[in-house]
Design goal:
187 residues; globular
Length: 187
């Protein structure tokens, strides 16, 4: 907490990547989010289900479909209406500014307070390996928010990056030139 208090005024974004290993405690989460708001720093969260309710007031929480279902108390998602109910339920539950549900081959769905759901179709041409796709999403989303992008534009860019990374074998990354080229060639 002392390090967070010292460093947060110097950063442009914060990512909480929660692996439920005990490092990200409820006290740490609460203090980081409070400091982020004080210093107008966007805070994004890659959540674990058991800690979902701890991310009150985050800028964006990015669960995958399975995590979102478990957090919303659902056993299955049958159609788009279920996705919308799930996303709105999560948005209300954690009172976050937004929830971005990553939905694999169905793309992503962005839920923002006071706005209609925004569905982003997948841009993956071929899927070889989904390892690291969630990390790519949150890192790209956070970088775009730090640079001043809107949530919608940041989510679009994160979707582009994820589409590229799943087209590679193993844990992979996407470079700025590669991402810029993908954005220029959107369908």
């Amino acid at each position: 907490i002392t390090n967070a208090e010292r460093l947060i005024p110097q950063v442009q974004a914060i990512v909480l990547s929660d692996y439920a290993k005990g490092v990200i405690t409820p006290q740490l989460i609460k203090r980081i989010i409070t400091l982020a708001h004080k210093h107008h720093v966007p805070i994004t969260v890659d959540p674990k289900v058991e800690n979902f309710k701890l991310y009150q007031q985050a800028t964006c929480v990015t669960p995958n479909t399975q995590e979102a279902m478990e957090s919303a108390g659902l056993h299955a998602v049958r159609d788009g209406k279920d996705v919308e109910k799930m996303g709105q339920s999560l948005l209300k539950m954690i009172r976050a500014q937004s929830v971005l549900i990553t939905r694999g081959e169905q793309g992503m769905s962005l839920f923002e307070k006071g706005k209609p759901v925004y569905h982003i179709p997948t841009r993956a041409r071929e899927v070889f390996d989904v390892t690291g796709a969630g990390d790519t999403v949150i890192s790209t989303l956070s970088l775009a928010l730090a640079a001043g992008a809107s949530l919608r534009d940041a989510a679009e860019l994160a979707n582009d990056a994820a589409g590229l990374v799943v087209g590679k074998l193993g844990t992979a990354s996407v470079g700025p030139e590669e991402l810029a080229k993908a954005v220029c060639h959107r369908d």
